[in-house]
Structure formats: C-alpha cells, structure tokens
Amino acid sequence: MHPFAAVLVASAAVSLVYSHAVLIGPKSREGMDIGDGIKYVGNITRYAPDPSFPMCAGFPAAAPVQTYTAGSKLDIKWSVTIPHTSDPGVTISIQYQPSEEFMVLGSGIDDALTQASIQLPPNKSSTSAVLRFMWQSKDDGGFYIGCSDIVVNPSKDAVVGPSTITASIITTESPAKMAATGTSKSASTATGPAGMASVSAVVKPTLSVKSGSECTAVVVAAWLILVVSVSL
User: Fold this and answer.
1) What is the C-alpha to C-alpha distance for residues 155 and 109, in angstroms, rounded to an integer?
2) Potential cystine with 66: which of 26, 123, 129, 140 (Cβ 3.0-4.6 Å)?
3) Ranges for the Chitin-binding type-4 domain (predicted)?
C-alpha cells in the first residue's frame, strides 16, 4: 500500500487565522480559507510529499486567475500563520492536463521565505493548468495544500521539428550524344541538411530525324533498284 494511502481528513475549512499555511499568489481555489491539513498516519519524516496525491485537497477547478508564457518565471507567494517545523519544506508542482500527474518545479523551499520564483518548462503549454503549493508540517503530521488555476501560453521561441524541403538538380547531355550512346542520363541528386529530401530526374534521349534531302536520296535509290530488277 502506498504510504500515503491511509489518511485522516481534518476538520472543514476555517478562516486564515487557523490555516497554518495558505497559497495567496497566484490566487488559490480556496481563496482565504483552507482546511487544517490532511493528516497522514505513520511517521511522515520517512516520506517526502507525493507530487500526485492528494488532488488539491478536494477543491474543484475554477476559472484561470493568471496567464503565463512557457519558459517564463512565475512568482509564488504564501502565508504561514502558525509556524511549524517544516521538512522537507515547500513543494511547487504543476499539472498541464487532467490526465497527467503533477510535475515538480521546485522542492525543499524554506517556508519562512513566503515566496519563490519558479521557472516553467519552455516547451509545455496548457489552457487549463493547475499550479499546486504543498507544505509539510513535521509537528502535527499535516500537509497544507493550495491550488491555482492558470493558463500557460506557448513560447514564441519554442523548438519545433525540422521542416522538409524538396530540391532537385538536373544535368543533361545533348540529344545527339545520348542517341549515339543509346543511354539515358540520370540527374545528380541534391543533398541538403538533415531532414531535407532529395529528388532525382531522368532525361530521356530524343529520336534522331533524317533531313529532307537524305530522305529523297533513299527513295530514289530504292526506285532504281526496283526498275533494274524488273528489267532483268
């Protein structure tokens, strides 16, 4: 069984004064109210916070409160109203799609700082991302969780796949030379950077046509041969 599977859920949401720790920027789903924490049975000092469990303390998704750009830094602020011994500290994670697990962006952050600047991955974007704050208290065995719904737009500098370019180079020989050899000449192939395709072209020889005087001479010769044959 997962070490976090057995849980005891604390009392219902109370005011900030009794919250111990709350995410205040970007604005969380909970607003200025948050539960007393989720108490995990067992020695919590043996385990680090699981980035995928539990899911935002049960608060449903809300409209996005902030828009960011992939690869940019976001400033996160929180309030600790009742200090506790915190180990391993604050963990910040993000979920880009509901079907994905949370990705840890930063962990072990000193809760006394009450703010942190975290950089987003450069090639990930979402119109329904969830930013999660998680703080583990060693004193009372609780995890304090806050989630913010945000938008992460694609970066203009995002890396894209290579484009495919088609190129061809054609080399030819004169029809007379090609007819004499009875061969056709294949075009040379263009080789470009990786990802570029190449195309070969084949130039076929043209037929050789006799001139008018040559054709007349042939006809006359054939007629003379025919006359001689008849006379004999």
Assistant:
1) 27
2) 26
3) 61-150
Q: What is the pTM of this model?
A: 0.54
Q: Which domain holds residue 41?
A: 7-153
- CA–CA gap between residue 90 and residue 110 (Å, rounded): 6
Instruction: Let me know the angle formed at the C-alpha of 62 by 102 and 59, rounded to the nearest 5 degrees.
Output: 65
Looking at residue 128, which CATH number applies to its domain?
Answer: 2.60.40.10
Q: Is residue 161 part of a domain?
A: no
Section 68-78 average pLDDT: 93
Is residue 165 a contact partner of residue 196, using CB atoms and an 8 Å limit? yes
Which of 142, 13, 24, 8 has the alpha carbon at shortest distance from 84? 142
Number of domains, the chain? 2
- 22 and 106: one domain? yes
* Distance from C-alpha of 88 to C-alpha of 35, rounded to nearest angstrom: 21
Is the CB of residue 115 less than 8 Å from the CB of residue 76?
yes
| Number of neighbouring beta carbons within 10 Å of residue 44 | 20
231 vs 37, more confident: 231
146 and 56 in a common domain: yes
Q: Which residues, 6+ apart, have CB-to-CB distance to 56 below 8 Å?
A: 29, 130, 132, 145, 146, 147
Distance CA 119, CA 132 (A): 14
Rounded Cα distance, 67 and 49, in Å: 27
Tracing tokens 């054709």 back to the chain, one arrives at 215
